[in-house]
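Holo prediction — geranylgeranyl diphosphate.
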Amino acid sequence: MIHEALRYTLLLPGKRLRGILVLAACDLLRGKRDSALPFACAVEMVHTSSLILDDLPSQDNATLRRGREVLHKVVGEATATLAAVALLTRAFGVIQGNRAVRDKVRNEAVEVLSLAIGTDGLIGGQVVDLESTGRELDLDGLEYIHSHKTGALFIAAAELGVLAAGGNNRDREALALYAKNLGLAFQITDDLLDYSGDPGVTGKDAGLDREKTTFVNLCGIDGARQLVDDLIDASVGSLLPFGKRSALLQALAEHVRRRDR
Ligand code: GRG
């Protein structure tokens, strides 16, 4: 039962964007796919863990995820919570099991991922988000929440790709900036889809954010679209030093600009 619960949300068709980001960042720097794959899997496990927790009645109280009933509706809240913790824990085992990279790289990967999840990352963003429900937020407050809740894992994904490839600090800074802007743009498109997306296409509830401040109700649809454009342009701008090799990461950013799921 617990293993079925672990597999349920993880193996439903998510977009795997964060995992793809790990692999694409590693490819860009001519790293080996085998070095990056375990890191990509770990990032997707962490992401799935966060989705399961986020969907719980005590948090977003969602009903639909990846086109199916949320995990806690299938196995109950207790088992869903344990599945999320198990996925999170196992993600670090998968990083440590990556024998294609040196010890130093594995250790750094653990540090990057744990910081991204922690109180200065996903958890920090989620706490402020929960505390802000029903309260007015300004653009800075909203950006704080989403650069932590969503952006932190995008940045970690890019950094893990750089680590897997043995990239230098300049590569790491450029790709972290790419991922920071991409993550925020992704979140704004998420708000746009919550407002006007089709659950049959997105695979998740629409209108869950109605009680919250979102980029759409703060900036309007056109304002939110403009922000997405600016952020995507900025993220693509960070790829300039890499020339043609960055085609895949550019395409990923363009996909986020136009996505409908
Ligand atoms: C302990 C890992 C952990 C987290 C605890 C619950 C929580 C803190 C944070 C919530 C983070 C969260 C769910 C942010 C929302 C990010 C977001 C836009 C998710 C949707 O991502 P998609 O559309 O989903 O990429 P798919 O299903 O395609 O993977």
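READOUT: The chain has twelve helices and two strands.
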